[in-house]
């Protein structure tokens, strides 16, 4: 009998939750367009409204502040723009500041030109340098427009949690706008847009067990908004045109609601599993480098390097043994390049890192099997290294 595969790549995408699938199937049966005023349209609109409330709860925001997009990448492209509106008035933003470890959809800078983007340094633990942020904002030419800062709440490779609330205080002091990429944090830890001091928060459905292809911009209020990236029929209160997908929104909403149920108890279970995994890795390979091990981190993520073994080679070995882990982020069209996150942390980006990201569904038996395979890969690494040393 074929061995069942073990999925440990939740930060790339999480498996679809049954509750999300069910909500999507119900919504797919509705024929109406949410913008139509007849009964069929109103039924589709009701699905959108419910999903909006569920997703808003994920960010501690009000439903009116949720704009659905095709994913967090589009959400980033929407808010990263020099063109804002404050009510009906234009509001100019002249420069974007981003930590060097951000996701590529943030580093791409949206509608800012490359000369309008400044990268901020991080330390060896992956934490943004708040002193550098303060200095940059002090030097910012306010006469040319406001400063926009985008900081992720949790890193997709290392899981490092950035000191967003501290950064927000600095940004507010300098009259800047704060965008927080909460894609990896939403649904894994309690997120509250006001407590974070963020003006905008970005979310993605597929990281929390909803369908792929939907995300959201959550705003702190309704007055200051970016000029739409996609103008047209005026859906999503004019902030993002195009007929909405009630099925995708329903799946996102159901996944958000599920994530918030027993959030703390679930987080404790996942954290204990991750700690078991790391203890096993450390015991078998004392020279293994667990990146950002000293930083506050996401409860489900471990990102490590094994000296002498390229992450890509290890990933293939895990895959052949039936275990899906990642070597770097999954967004680069199947190609694994050197990790910009490790490079920014001053680590050996060519050796790369192996990212194991688990979820609530990860079982004890799967952890045991992971550790068995890790032991096998590690033994082979030791043997290869001894042979190489013997040859020298
Ligand atoms: N931000 C982070 C931190 C991510 O991990 C990802 C996905 O990998 C994104 C943004 C992009 O999200 P989406 O796949 O919804 O475009």
UniProtKB/TrEMBL annotation:
Gene3D superfamilies hit by this protein: 1.10.260.50, Aspartate Aminotransferase, domain 1 (3.90.1150.10), Type I PLP-dependent aspartate aminotransferase-like (Major domain) (3.40.640.10)
Keyword field contains Cytoplasm: no
GO MF entry, a single one: iron-sulfur cluster binding
Keyword annotations: Coiled coil, Iron, Iron-sulfur, Metal-binding, Pyridoxal phosphate, Transferase
Domain Aminotransferase class V: 6-368
Record keyword ATP-binding present: no
Pfam families reported in the protein's UniProt record: Aminotran_5
Reactions catalysed: (sulfur carrier)-H + L-cysteine = (sulfur carrier)-SH + L-alanine
Organism superkingdom: Bacteria
Coiled-coil segments: 253-280
Entry cofactors: pyridoxal 5'-phosphate
InterPro entries in alphabetical order: Aminotrans_V_dom, Cysteine_dSase, PyrdxlP-dep_Trfase, PyrdxlP-dep_Trfase_major, PyrdxlP-dep_Trfase_small
Annotated family: Belongs to the class-V pyridoxal-phosphate-dependent aminotransferase family. NifS/IscS subfamily.
Function statement: Catalyzes the removal of elemental sulfur atoms from cysteine to produce alanine. Seems to participate in the biosynthesis of the nitrogenase metalloclusters by providing the inorganic sulfur required for the Fe-S core formation.
Official protein name in the record: Cysteine desulfurase
Source organism (scientific name): Hoeflea prorocentri
């Amino acid at each position: 009998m074929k061995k069942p595969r073990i999925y440990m790549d939740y930060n790339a995408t999480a498996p679809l939750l049954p509750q999300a699938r069910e909500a999507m199937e119900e919504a797919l049966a509705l024929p109406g367009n949410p913008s139509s005023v007849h009964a069929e349209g109103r039924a589709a609109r009701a699905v959108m409204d419910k999903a909006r409330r569920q997703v808003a709860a994920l960010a501690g925001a009000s439903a009116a502040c949720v704009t659905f997009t095709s994913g967090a990448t589009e959400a980033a492209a929407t808010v990263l723009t020099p063109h804002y509106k404050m009510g009906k008035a234009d509001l100019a933003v002249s420069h974007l500041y981003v930590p060097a470890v951000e996701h590529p959809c943030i580093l791409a800078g949206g509608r800012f030109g490359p000369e309008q983007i400044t990268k901020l340094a991080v330390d060896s633990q992956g934490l943004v340098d708040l002193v550098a942020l303060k200095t940059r904002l002090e030097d910012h030419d306010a006469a040319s427009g406001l400063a926009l800062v985008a900081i992720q709440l949790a890193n997709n490779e290392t899981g490092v949690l950035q000191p967003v609330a501290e950064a927000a205080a600095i940004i507010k002091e300098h009259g800047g706008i704060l965008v927080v990429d909460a894609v990896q944090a939403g649904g894994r830890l309690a997120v509250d847009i006001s407590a974070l001091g963020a003006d905008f928060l970005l979310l993605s459905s597929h990281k929390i067990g909803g369908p792929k292809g939907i995300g959201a911009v959550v705003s702190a209020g309704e007055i200051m908004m970016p000029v739409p990236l996609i103008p047209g029929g005026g859906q999503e209160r004019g902030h993002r045109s195009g007929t909405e997908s009630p099925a995708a929104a329903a799946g996102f909403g159901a996944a958000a609601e599920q994530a918030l149920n027993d959030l703390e108890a679930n987080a404790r279970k996942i954290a204990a599993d991750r700690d078991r995994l790391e203890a096993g890795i450390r015991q078998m390979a004392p020279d293994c480098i667990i990146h950002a091990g000293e930083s506050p981190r996401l409860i489900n993520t471990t990102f490590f390097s094994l000296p002498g073994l390229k992450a890509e080679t290890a990933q293939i070995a895990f895959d052949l043994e039936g275990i899906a882990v990642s070597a770097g982020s999954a967004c680069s069209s199947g190609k694994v390049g050197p990790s910009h996150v490790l490079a920014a942390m001053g680590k050996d980006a060519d050796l790369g890192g192996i990212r194991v990201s688990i979820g609530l569904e990860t079982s004890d038996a799967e952890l045991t099997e992971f550790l068995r395979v890790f032991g096998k890969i590690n033994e082979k690494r030791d043997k290869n290294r001894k042979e190489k040393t013997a040859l020298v």
